[in-house]
Amino acid sequence: MKLISNTLQNLHSTLYNIRETDIDGISITLYTLCATFAIIWYAWMYTQSKKGKPPPQPPSPPGLPLVGNLPFLDPQLHTYFAELARRYGPIVKLRLGNKIGIVVTSADTAREVLKHHDINFANRDVPAVTQAMSYGPYDIVWSPYGPRWRMLRKVCVLKMLSNTTLDSAYRLRRREVRETVGYMYGLIGTPINVGEQIFLTILNVITDMLWGSTVQGEERANLGAEFRQVISEITELLVKPNISDFYPALARFDLQGVTNKMKRLSWKIEMILDKVIDQRLKMDGENRNKQECKDFLQFLLRLKEEGDSTPPLNMTHIKALLMLKNPLVAIPTPRLSDPALYEFIVAGIFLAVHANIINYLIAGVMMTGRAIYLHVKSSNDPGDEKPKTFMAIITSLVAITAVIWLLLNLKRSKNTAAPLPPGPRGLPIIGYLPFLGTHLHKAFTELAGIYGPIYKLWLGNKLCVVVSSPSLIRELVRDQDTIFANRDPPIAALVYTHGGKDIAWCPYGPQWKKMRKLFVSKMMSNASLDACYTLRRQEVKNIIRDVYNRSSKPIDIGELSVSASINVVQNMLWGCTLEGEMGTNLGVELRVLFAELMVLLGALNISDIFPVLARFDIQGIAKRTKEISLHFEKIIDCAIERCRNMVMIRGGVLGNNDGKKDFLLILLELIEEHEDSATSLTMAQLKAIIKDIILGGTDTTTTMVEWTMAELMQHPEVMKNVQEELTEVVGIASLVEEFHLPKLRYLDAVVKEALRLHPALPLLVPRCPSQSTTVGGYTIPKGARIMLNVWAIHRDPQLWDNPLEFRPERFLNNSENFDYLGNNFQYMPFGSGRRICAGIPLAERMLMFLLASLLHSFEWKLPYNTQLDLSDKFGIVIKKLKPLVVIPTPRLSNSELY
Ligand code: HEM
Hints:
By secondary structure, this protein is mainly alpha-helical. The protein is 54% helix and 7% strand. The protein has a three-stranded antiparallel sheet with strand order 3-4-5, with no helix packed on it. A three-stranded mixed sheet has the order 6-7-13, covered by helices on one side. The chain has a three-stranded antiparallel sheet with strand order 9-17-14. A hairpin with a 7-residue loop joins strand 4 (335-336) and strand 5. The longest helix has 32 residues, at 20-51. The chain is elongated and about 110 Å long. Residues 503-504, 516, 692-693, 696-697, 700-701, 704, 760-761, 764-765, 829-832, 835-839, 842-843, 847 line the site of protoporphyrin IX containing FE (HEM). Keywords: Membrane, Transmembrane, Transmembrane helix. The chain crosses the membrane at residues 25-44, 344-369, 389-408.
């Protein structure tokens, strides 16, 4: 210890006793040391960089995390690559998911890669799906470079494609080509699909060469047809963009099920090949060596038996070679320098991004034989021995095609399928999603200004078509109503309704027709709605009393109308059954669940945009919706049980003592009275209808009450007219009753005008065509999501005078032209056609009754110094962005009325 303290003391005194001249000396020494160190460091770095530093990677355009450059690839791949080369030089690096791609665009670099480093680059980058093909690793195209590949290639090029072998199969080719020409001759004057004919001819020529003398007659035709079918399915799979190729770590999950499907198809091929090989073996067993080889199969089996290839040719090799001879070889094949590096020479890998890229690539191969490869073969490459006869066939076929194409051009131009609608180009994979913003209805309206009243866009991998003109909507929902009567339900809606068992999401068909008919005729009829009027009236009275108790205080109209709508709907549903505290408690529970459900249904769900990911439910939306759905059902079960007990107590009499009937009673009657008849309902359907009423009836009504009130606060003169009408029709000493409603013509015009400017469902509920069809001269493919932009039509200046002004008068003198039945395609707040809103009679009554009661019973004013904001926020139902807060004061002459 002592030693340490002495040392510290010495050091301290040394430092504090340094003189100025000493400091100068120390500084000079330090500077010299630093300079020397810097020089040595620089010299060392320099020699290192000269010595062994790896050269930099090729330049690369900027990409995004995770997806890399994938989203920026242009479908016109060849021009895109040329553009990249202009900007970054002849060798460019791209990141595709977590793969690296290298694009080579100059002859010099291509020579370097394919000639000087040929061995390094002689491997392929095998797409995940080919691993599932039984012969994937055994065929020439995908085999790793090595003895097996050399043996297979030798057999193929020197033996199978030799002039002698091809000459011996000439008869078979001639037969097929003549058949095609004869077939086309018979079709003179009729349009034909030339591409398809050529494909079929080539496939027939090839299968003929494969086993044409082994299988004959009808059996050959059947086998050919089966083979063709499997081959086209395999071709489709091979060109399908596969997530596993871009993210090899995900390959084991086979997210799109491509690998599984390929295994199934591979198995089918195996069966076909086994059958033909068995037959050949039997035939050869009978007269071995008596005849010369007439098809490839016979030739290969003979070669196997001779066993003089190294490594020896086995049955799997034979099958792989037979498969090689089908048009699948037209699939482009990227090369790989070293599998461990995940690098490849690109031309073909990008094919997985877009189907049209793939078509382009395939077309390239078919036309030129090897246009895709950046592969400039050296002159001693055995592959350059062009099979002359084969090339002659291809050339003849191309020539025939060209002549036929020229002859038919005029006719075809009249008959060609209509194009897809125009539309903005989006990014690969995510489509136009990133450019839409949050106000979909407004973005769609702006796009209509650019692309016209019908256009398409991709949202994720969903093709959407947006229609925004009355005449096109007429074409859709009137002229082609049955085709467009299907829905395109979001996953959450499917979960909530057990796969679309309700009216709103049920596919168009007998089930939907039956439920809708029962719903409209039994529940929405005037008689049924009259029968539950007291239930509505009782609930509206409660609301008026509640507001009265909060007189002169600010009230959030949105909140008020949510609880008002839910209470009214709930009372109509089971008001006779669940009276008193039980009804109130369930009402509160329902409101909480309902609020969450609306959020879930309105959320942007990745599963809807990328259906392949649906099974993972990444955001947990499906799971939570299911929980809520079950909770809803528990409430419904509880109501049903109570109802049944009540009926038992009353000795089997359905209905209340005073003849009131809630919806639950009507529905149970339908189950019990009509068992097994065409009008019977199942319990699942009963629950689904109740869910529809809660979902369809509450949010829409709530939103419209708030919008109408907001417009009235903005336009005091309109408010004054409404209240004067109410005073005249109802009287200042009475409460509004439903029988007053038909006389309130001005209020009716106000509600219509609010629904024009703020349609609750601005894009209606998306439709989905059950088959491909043509609308407005454009093809609408089956399964596309069709959005009808009613919001844009309701604000179109060509259809409405001063469309952005709130002017109820436009409906006052013209009311016969504007009802809610969807016959006037200029005004459709409840939709149109077969799938028009099923609850219009109730919606109309509820909306008018609630508004008339609130406006008649109270004066409303904005809190001091508040500005009204009429901006909206997009969702399934379009709401006010900022809540409307207003202050009520009693208006009726008699306070006892409250
Ligand atoms: C102001 C209130 C309401 C508005 C603005 C409204 C609007 C709509 C719209 C635009 C549609 C889609 C129509 C189409 O695709 O062409 C629809 C469908 C539907 N609405 Fe309403 N609705 C309202 C109230 C109600 C009420 C109160 C109920 C039930 C009691 C209801 C039940 C339904 C049902 C079941 C469907 C689906 C019909 C089907 O697919 O066949 N709606 N509604």
